[in-house]
Amino acid sequence: MATTLLERPETVEQAESRSKLFVPDLVFVEPAALDYPLGEEIYQRFRQQGIPIRMTTSHNQVRGIPGDTEVEQYRNAKRTLVVGVRKTLKFETSKPSAEYAIPLATGCAAHCHYCYLNTNIGTKPYIRVYVNTDEILSRAETYIRERAPEITRFEAACTSDPISIEHITGNLKRTIEFIGRQKYGRLRFVSKFHHVDSLLDAEHNKHTRFRFSLNADYVIKNFEPGTSTFEQRIEAAGKVAKAGYPLGFIIAPLYWFEGWEEGYTHLLEKLNRQLVPEAMEDLTFELIQHRFTKIAKKLILQRYPKTKLEMNEGERKYKWGKYGKGKYVYPDVKAKALQAHLETEIARLFPKARIEYFT
């Protein structure tokens, strides 16, 4: 049995940090944000808390994030909040999860080494929240009308983890209740955080699928600093299921490490033991293998120089994507082994569950 699964226990400080709500060290505010009630409310709240606030004409003009090195500046940027207005109301597509990505925020305070936001956000890793929520939801309603009577699904976690900042904006609850009133609208999002209590009384009408990202202990402990623990996520999933939300789990990235079969079996068996019965009736799984680009690899090694994340192009398969760009995934033999093992164990432990895709 591989010893790589046996990691050192977390320190008290590390465990406490996983339980805390995100509070920024520095806040930038776009002047236009103060024209919206939510923008003014956030501004006044942080001002009363004594958190430094600076005005900026645009998030592209954010300057002065402290740090003597690139790594320090990156880590401080992840503790920085930008309060602004979403100017582009054309929604991006979000296949295979949904028809559209609904833009509620950008950025995340967690430090998952493998995260695609390393490249999507690039040199702007700070967290941006948008305060023109009514305009964003109005645009979503237009998309729903254009496709009716087909169902239009929106993904709210393409560019952020919405649970991690919900205590700041309340935008996710507003969106859940908005979609709950739409006959042909549905909402989906995923989180690695457990701060769900404010969403439990939302009038969702089962139009929102609440998903949690899970992984083997090895992956969570080595590559997901700053996120809630497995146990915290499962406890939150139980609350969500009891509140009547359809529930799902994304197991990503599926990662090949020594002892991976035992690791993922242990994950699913633990999930089976701890998940409340209410969750079992309408449960989905999404399976996503680890992938990276050359740009992502360069950024990850700059920002997390001690990472154990394996990114050897010579041991991967290059998979072409849109716009002539591609990424490195596992070769077919490994990918099929991961898929077969996960699908077999999910069928054994969750016979009523639906696997939506493997990619």
Question: What does it look like?
Answer:
It is a single chain. The chain has 359 residues and is of the alpha/beta class. The chain folds into 2 domains: 22-84, Rossmann fold (3-Layer(aba) Sandwich); 86-358, pyruvate-formate lyase- activating enzyme (Alpha-Beta Horseshoe), CATH 3.80.30.30. Helices cover 35% and strands 19% of the residues. It is built from 12 helices and 15 strands. The protein has helices at residues 12-19, 37-48, 70-77, 117-120, 133-147, 166-169, 171-180, 217-223, 230-242, 260-274, 294-303, 332-349; strands spanning 26-29, 53-55, 80-84, 93-94, 98-101, 105-106, 127-130, 152-155, 185-191, 208-214, 247-254, 283-289, 317-320, 326-329, 354-358. An 8-stranded mixed sheet has the order 4-5-8-9-10-11-12-15, with helices on one face. A 5-stranded mixed sheet has the order 2-1-3-7-6, with helices on one face. It has a two-stranded antiparallel sheet with strand order 13-14. α2 (37-48) links the parallel β1 (26-29) and β2 (53-55). The longest helix is centred in the C-terminal third of the chain and has 18 residues, at 332-349. It is globular and about 55 Å long.
Q: What is the rounded Rg? A: 20 Å
CATH class of the largest domain: Alpha Beta
Stretches where pLDDT falls below 50 for ≥5 residues?
1-16
Strand order of the largest sheet: 4-5-8-9-10-11-12-15
- Which structural class fits the helix and strand makeup? alpha/beta
Q: Quick check: average pLDDT?
A: 91
* Strand residues, percent: 15-25%
Tell me the number of structural domains: 2
Distance between the termini: 28 Å
Overall, the morphology is: globular
Fraction of helical residues: 25-40%
Which architecture of the largest domain per CATH?
Alpha-Beta Horseshoe
Sheet with most strands? 8 strands, mixed
The H-and-E topology, N to C, reads as: HEHEHEEEEHEHEHHEEHHEHEHEEHE
